[in-house]
Amino acid sequence: MSRIQNCFKRLAADGRRALIPFITAGDPSPELTVPLMHALVEGGADIIELGVPFSDPMADGPTIQRASERALAQGMTLRKVLAQVVAFRADNAETPVVLMGYANPIEAMGVSAFVAQAAKAGVDGVLVVDYPPEECATFAEQAKAVSLDPIFLLAPTSTEARFDDVARIGSGYIYYVSLKGVTGSGALDFDEVARRIPQIRARVGLPVGVGFGIRDAESAKRIGEVADAVVIGSRIIEEINQSKPDQLIANVTRFVAGIRVALDQLPGVPR
């Protein structure tokens, strides 16, 4: 059983929702990535999504796009992201880390080489936005063989056939995109999310995390009423880039802690 699966099992036993914050590796500087990862954990993160900077994203809104641009301008690469995970693992062997990004850097490294190096670095899951489940069964098999969970996106437009594709090869959890659009955009339709999550959970059989459009404790709490996990990214990156350098770590820790408190106010496990 992977670290991610153990994490969700433990949280379910405690009647708690997973908090999954996202940051972009290398933003605002490569030197701050590992301290920020530790700050997320201190604030109450259960799983960390670490964005691999990419020049041509298709799902990321302007906030995360700019974070990737800043990171790439400072020389960030996939190999350097893996090195940051190694550095994080020197002091934290428990918190699952999921790499989130796009296929091009992985293909450039070579899928087999990436899977082996990610597992060796201490990565627990991989979400590749442009790896559709019906086209990457081999990648998923290689990942699972070294206890890496291949994580997939589902959206308001996803069909039952796509649910079945994800159920066949996905692992760890499902990332449900709560709105039509890019990260950080639009207004959440909580009723639609509440309608879709039970359908996905029943069909796919994995915990469901919800992201895109969650910006504060109130929206996180409402999503937590129906989801197994809450994913929040753009708002954290805004906090990072609005903070003075000497206040950055404390501000991020405080913001994440506020979301954690809100989620822990919810009773029971959503089912």
Please characterize this protein's 3D structure.
The chain is α/β, with parallel strands linked by helices and 271 residues long. The protein has one domain: Aldolase class I (TIM Barrel). Helix content is 50%, strand content 14%. The chain is built from twelve helices and eight strands. The protein has helices spanning 3-14, 30-43, 62-73, 78-89, 103-109, 111-121, 137-145, 160-169, 190-204, 217-224, 234-242, 248-264, and strands spanning 18-24, 48-51, 97-101, 125-128, 149-154, 174-177, 208-211, 229-232. An eight-stranded parallel beta barrel has the order 1-2-3-4-5-6-7-8, surrounded by nine helices. α9 links the parallel β6 and β7 (208-211). α2 (30-43) packs across α4 (78-89), α2 (30-43) packs parallel to α12 (248-264) and α4 (78-89) packs parallel to α6. The longest helix is centred in the last third of the chain and has 17 residues, at 248-264. The chain is globular, with a radius of gyration of 17 Å. Residues 181-185 have low confidence and may be disordered.
Number of helices: 12
Give helix % range: 40-55%
The CATH level-2 architecture is identified as: Alpha-Beta Barrel
β-sheet strand percentage: 5-15%
The CATH C-level name is Alpha Beta
Poorly predicted runs: 181-185
Order of H and E elements: HEHEHHEHHEHEHEHEHEHH
Total domains, how many?
1
Average pLDDT confidence is 92
CATH fold name:
TIM Barrel
Major sheet size, sense and barrel closure? 8 strands, parallel, barrel
Task: Assign the structural class, choosing from mainly alpha, mainly beta, alpha/beta, alpha+beta, or little secondary structure.
Answer: alpha/beta
Shape from CA axes? globular
Strands, count: 8
**CATH homologous superfamily title:** Aldolase class I
Distance between the termini: 22 Å
